Amino acid sequence: MIKNDVEFNQTKLTLEDLEVALADLKQTLAEEDPELFEVFAAPYLKNIDRLRQEIDEYIGVTLAQKERAPLWLRLKGENIEYGKASAKILSDWLKKVVDSFRNVVTFLFTGRSAGIGAPPKEISALSEINVAAFAPGSLEIGFRLPEETQQELFDKRNFPEEALFGLLKAVTWLDSENPEDKLEEDFPDPTERKVILNEAMNLIPSEDSPVSSIELSGAYLPRKKEVRLNPQHKERGKAVIDKLKEAREEEEEKVEAFIGWIAEVDYAKYPFTFELHDPDDPRKRKIATFHFTIDLVKEVHENLDYNKENPRRVKVRGQREEKRIEAISIEPIEESE
After folding, report:
1. What is the C-alpha to C-alpha distance for residues 271 and 289, in angstroms, rounded to an integer?
2. Domain finish residue from 199, 226, 249
3. Greatest C-alpha distance within the chain
4. pLDDT at 334 exceeding the cut of 70
5. DSSP code string of 134-158
6. CB pairs under 8 A, 24+ apart, for 217-222?
7. Is the pLDDT of residue 82 over 70?
8. How sure is the predictor about 147, in pLDDT bands with cuts at 50, 70 and 90?
9. Is residue 114 located within the same domain as residue 181?
């Protein structure tokens, strides 16, 4: 690490000596024995790269490079460094970031999981977070949100920004000692808290991954702090997910059971709604309207039936909340029942 101008000038001279020595080696050996040249050149290249990085950091190249992207992801591991890591590791982590970001955007925009049906075309167009830069000499990737001019499609609400900042809040909480109350403060809705925390946990390396930890840094992070995640952080997130599941199960103790068929579904606003009708009534009158969250989207979709003559029967378990009924579970009823 260069600390002052004296060391800076000395480092430049050392670098120049190494470059001259490498050039001499090339002239005497490269054409006659390329393989031997590669072997002898390796230590020169390693030291040249190291000195260039130190010079770049001292004169501000590294800092200027960092400013090109407001979010940086650095992969760390025993063999994870520039020039050694496999292309698959890089592509896998790019996919992890893009998938987690897109899933949160889709949830905020539609209220349902990205895995249920194709996302709206607006989501597909805007949920691709951009790769802005690669840091020289390391496996570090810079990201940037889509251009602001595209946000007009979101009718003044910036879903990509909400998604990314929400994801980074959850990631920051995972790498902190803040109590669970802080997470509840950031995400008051339990379903949103669960979805975003799950996506944040997807960015934690697994125990058997060649990536032992990741570092996130940049202006997008809350208070511009650096976040480090390793496999041990999964337990912190899992504890919250388990509590949310237990709370949901306690609420289920107060439920009622309804028999009918799902005739209509409305995804216009969140929570979504569906209408349960009486299949035995000649006029197929409505029994009740149920509100439901992202957890039941798949079940509602699978049991929706437009066949009024012989509709598919389901058992819906729901809980009354003031003037509405919250759907808890949906089970198809076999003909024999």
Report:
1. 12
2. 249
3. 96
4. yes
5. E-TTSSEEEEEPPPGGGGGGGTT--
6. 217/71, 217/72, 217/74, 218/66, 218/69, 218/70, 218/71, 218/72, 218/142, 219/70, 219/71, 220/70, 220/71, 220/164, 220/165, 220/168, 221/71, 221/168, 221/172, 222/168, 222/169, 222/172
7. no
8. low
9. yes
Query: How high is the pLDDT of residue 149?
Result: 42
Q: Alpha carbon of 126 to those of 156, 163, 329: distances in Å?
A: 14, 11, 33
Q: Please indicate, yes or no, whether residues 51 and 104 belong to a single structural domain of this protein.
A: no
CB atoms within 10 A of CB 29: 17
Residue 140's nearest CA partner among 98, 96, 85, 88 is 85
Q: What domain count does the chain have? A: 3
In 153-277, which ranges are continuous DSSP H helix? 159-174, 180-186, 190-201, 233-252
Looking at residue 77, its pLDDT comes to 85
- In this prediction, residue 36 has a pLDDT band, given cuts at 50, 70 and 90, of very high
Q: Is 83 left (phi over 0), alpha (psi -120 to 50) or beta?
A: left
Q: Is residue 66 left, alpha or beta, with left meaning phi > 0 and alpha meaning psi from -120 to 50?
A: alpha
Task: Output the CA angle 146-116-229, nearest 5 degrees.
Answer: 55
Residue 19: pLDDT over 50 = yes
Which residue range(s) make up the domain with 191?
71-249
Against a cut of 0.85, is the pTM above it?
no
Same domain, 93 and 155: yes
Query: 134 pLDDT band (50/70/90 cuts)?
Result: low
User: What would the 3-class secondary structure string for 41-87 be?
Assistant: HHHHHHHHHHHHHHHHHHHCHHHHHHCCCCEEEEEECCCCCCCCCCH
